[in-house]
What we know:
A: 80% helix, B: alpha+beta, 2 domains, cell inner membrane (chain A), Molybdenum transport system permease (chain A), transport (chain A)
Amino acid sequence: MNWLLDLTPDEWTAVRLSVKVATVAMLASVPPGILIAYALARGRFWGKTLLNGIVHLPLVLPPVVTGYLLLLAFGRRGPIGAFLAEHFGIVFSFRWTGAALACGVMGFPLMVRAIRLSIESVDRKLEAAAGTLGANPLWVFSTVTLPLILPGIIAGAILSFAKAMGEFGATITFVSNIPGETQTLPSAIYTFTQVPGGDEGALRLTLISIIISMLALVASEVLARRLGKRMDVE
Amino acid sequence: MTLCVDIRHRQGDFRIEASFTGSGRLTALFGPSGSGKSSLINLIAGLIRPDQGRIEVDGKVLVDTKAGVFLPRHKRRIGMVFQDARLFPHMNVRSNLLYGRWFTPPAERYLDMDAIVDLLGIGALLERKPALLSGGEKQRVAIGRALLSSPRLLLMDEPLASLDEARKAEILPYIERLRDQMKIPIVYVSHSVAEVARLASDVVVLAQGKVTASGPVSDILQRLDLLPAGERGEGGALIETVVLRHDDTFSMTVLGSGAGEIRVPRIDIPVDQRVRLRIRARDVMIATERPNGLSALNILPGKVAAITHGAGAESEVRIDCNGVPVMSRITEQSRQALGLEPGQQVFAVVKTVSFDETSTGMGVGEVSA
């Protein structure tokens, strides 16, 4: 145990950074994830198939390609990146925020799928009943639909977090591998394997990575079970 | 309350063209399945938008396609009790009950939570989750939830259809109390003659999306031709009676009516209370002279008022028993053998055991103790 926790300052930095990046990526994905999942589950609009395709693209493209596309769009000279930097002072390239963006994009299809499935399983008759009781559509969503899809949202969020913890290709392509700024756990492990005598560090970080992922899974199980008990869905 | 509906609507191949005015305490929309009853109340509740037409409750226009008016469901203040209860699974009974209250401005709340909980007998269930309730309990909570949103009109879409006989018997008295004690007009969808006879003050009969008749329930139930073929024998006379006394030796109750005393199996309603009694047409025999040596206990003298010979073997005879109409369904052969003609003096004979628990209910308009 001592051997496992006796990390060098650089290794600690990588662990902390990874957790930070994955948490931010997950939290920032939840609101757009619900919105898009809702649109895909319930909406009838032109271009729905196209939207569905775009959302799922990161799942099928090589991560390096996704990373490169992000670099083109959100890089300093990219159209979106330049606009954001100029007007809002938000910079993604070679910053930890860029790592969070890359991780969020890679985990997004997983989150949307989970939430969409749970929205599709909601009994719309319950929403109609809430409407006859005087709730307007926004209230119906927040008091009936949202609580009923909470397990799906949690499942989607955990998937997104787990994906972010393991994201490597898109991150390293978009924001490179800068210790203390963009070097997440996978990048750090990769770096260790590239230098002589790095085996021990790589193994330590690998074990830590496994532990964090397991904790996330256990947490989601516990939460889902508690929610299930609270709901006693018929 | 007046409910005016005049609607033309198409759903796939099915057309509804219904126009009626209801002003009773409990108006039953009655018809076989597929006659458009449920679509009609979904239209009133705002769950379906009609192609054409107008719906008005107490002068308030809910829908008027000509004027481009379509009030969304959450602004209609129309309570709805669904066949499948539809309680929110993630809330306990108390939160379910209070859900609609949230959205009602305090000035418009006219019902009190405690009174409703009392009326429906759901005090012990408040902290439970819907999944732990029986079918009958769920339906009572659903009724309470709709009432607590303080609606101007309560719609009930076959609230008993998914329950077994015992559960139905458990809920019927609550609906009677609702009808008699609350000031909310009710529109009740049903395909069961027994439920309509027991609960309704007025009936709108639907067949294939069209209104075929409407009027006070006692008039409609005598028109056996209006009832679905399978339930025609369930129709008959609906008469207002009073409990005269209970006969504990033979476990019977004697009811007083304009037609004379009627003996039914013991019912649990106090003396002097008004009781609505349904005498099924198929249970009534006709004798041309007062019968002797007969086991049947109820022999009501009267005059033949009208005879209708329908298709098939049966004839329907309406007997005027001292101002109270009693319907009888006999074969055309018997009618000819007895030589029955309008104006003739006859006796309507009804066995006491032909009355069952679906035959009696609280008289409409009476506030029970």
